[in-house]
Write a structure and sequence with these properties.
Number of helices: 8
Strand content: 15-25%
Radius of gyration: 18 Å
Helix content: 25-40%
Distance between the termini: 16 Å
Structural class: alpha/beta
Largest sheet: 6 strands, mixed
Length: 265
């Protein structure tokens, strides 16, 4: 069972992928006090997080270590479904941050989390194309073209499930040339020019800088991904796990996640 965190608007409004001009953008906002106001924690902390959180959580890990000099943070970034399987198989970890509630539920149903998971951000899909857009992609309908080389996440991965939903909504039959196990692998295919187009998250396009180009599409509104986070029940460092989750929900977490392009829950 999940609860949504009550939010207070703190950062500037963020434009959501695929929103129309009249839509009001959301902002990631805090719901917990900064970790710096709490007692410092120590020891090793292992965070299992969705691949799309790589850049933002890496920064938050450094900031958390700076606020708690006795802590060393290690991340395991991968597809949320793979992370859930690893956790349920006994992999030692303190925190799980998933790109979709379904994967968190897999862990929660197995008694793997402490308390209830909190949705801390949400994300949308965006079309990613190589620099210069050589295939002249204009929108989601192009994914139905037989001669187009495309990359998608596998359906069991949150970005793949979201892609399936937008294609179904739009009535498009896509024939991917490759299915990847996490969104960063899909993004790499685009960066290398191995595919004409792919579906990744808005935040991934932003993190790629000028290496790829992003194309928003209105159908993305039909498949918004909520990201839940929770301390794990068998966390070797329970105190640090709780402190890190609080840090992600704090004003500092809001700042980093908002800058990465994530939207409010």
């Amino acid at each position: 069972m999940f609860r949504r965190t009550g939010v207070v608007v703190l950062a500037a409004a963020l434009s959501l992928v695929g929103c129309s001009a009249q839509d009001t953008a959301s902002t990631v906002a805090p719901s917990a006090s900064p970790t710096s106001s709490a007692p410092a924690v120590t020891g090793a902390l292992t965070v299992f997080a969705a691949a799309s959180l790589t850049e933002s959580f890496t920064q938050l890990g450094k900031d958390f270590e700076a606020a708690n000099p006795g802590v060393k943070v290690t991340f395991n970034f991968a597809g949320s479904s793979a992370l859930a399987t690893q956790i349920n198989s006994g992999a030692p970890a303190d925190v799980f941050a998933s790109a979709a509630p379904a994967n968190m539920k897999t862990v929660s149903d197995a008694g793997g989390i402490t308390g209830t998971a909190t949705t801390f951000v949400k994300n949308k899909l965006e079309i990613a194309v190589p620099k210069g857009n050589p295939a002249k992609i204009t929108g989601l309908a192009d994914f139905g073209k037989a001669d187009l080389k495309i990359a998608l996440c596998a359906e069991q991965v949150p970005c793949g499930a979201a892609a399936k939903k937008v294609f179904e909504t739009a009535g498009i039959t896509a024939a991917p040339d490759t299915l990847e196990q996490d969104v960063k692998a899909v993004l790499t295919k685009v960066k290398l020019g191995e595919v004409d187009a792919a579906l990744v998250y808005k935040t991934d396009v932003k993190s790629a800088g000028g290496d790829v180009e992003g194309i928003e599409f209105p159908e993305s509104d039909k498949a918004v991904n909520d990201y839940p986070i929770a301390p794990l029940a068998k966390a070797p460092n329970a105190a640090a796990a709780k402190a890190f989750v609080d840090f992600v929900l704090s004003a500092k977490g809001v700042s980093v996640l908002s800058a990465a392009g994530f939207a409010a829950p």
